[in-house]
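Q: My labmate handed me this sequence with no annotations at all. I'd like to see what the chain might look like in three dimensions before we decide whether it's worth expressing. Could you predict it?
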Amino acid sequence: MINTFNRIAYRKHLTLTFFPDFFNFGVMGVIALTKLHTIYSLQRMLFRKMVLDLCRSPGESLILIALCLWLQEIGYPNVILKLLVLHDTMLDKALDETVLYLRYLASQFTIGPPQITTISASEDFGFDICLQMLFQYKYTTISAIKRYLRTVCSYVFTDLLYHASPDASYFIPYQIISIPGFPHPIFGSLNIRLWPMDHIFYTQGLWPWCPMNQVDADDRSLFITFSKGFPVSDQEIRELFTKIFGDCVDIVDLANTKPNQQPLFARLVLRTVEMVDHILQGKVTAKFQINGKHVWARKYRRGWGRRKQ
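A: Here is what I predict for the chain of 309 residues:
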């Protein structure tokens, strides 16, 4: 199970280690790209090995690196280093297994955990990477991968992505480069620029251990549906989930309807993405009752609820 307290403490430890002024509000720190390359040197070594030595897809490799960073954040120590020391054949096998898991994770129609229970190469790590646990926290994992893609992966691999591109010609600073596979159906778009080596970044807003309330509202949302003839108010929805799960509700957005017409769905925005997984418990749909009326909750997807009632 993901330990939220330990994860927050880990983020704060990293931040205070490299940026001691980060928690002094009003202080804006700076860092050079060369320093970022030093901090993430192991990640860069692994990415180089994946893309240049093993000839793996750059876009897929970025997602795999983001997953590794997330695994380290939730308590799997030194995943990057332990992958680096594997023989190329074993590394390729471990990456293939992880890609299968990611494809399963991304499926909109999965109803249970994957058949692969652990990544086989993790037996040499001194711990097992439990894929069932990651599946139980499916939406937290997806959101974390997106967070790392938009932060670390968008800054520290740009030179390697440029050299791996078959169309690489002249290096044009700050040019946006396209990554095959993006926009991704699950992890979204990814805007990556060619940063010159002397570029200086402002530290606030750059780092992946930012507060979790910066997670996109869509990632924190459930789609709530009701039965026709049994109207449910936004206050009833808020009271139901607050009573069962505590102070977890951010916004209840009841569907707009014509006068005297009953709304049949609502969008429920929660305070954290972890609460989405806690409510669904690895299932596609969770069922509740509000004052004797049935209510169904499932993960919200952009575009749902736009159809006419």
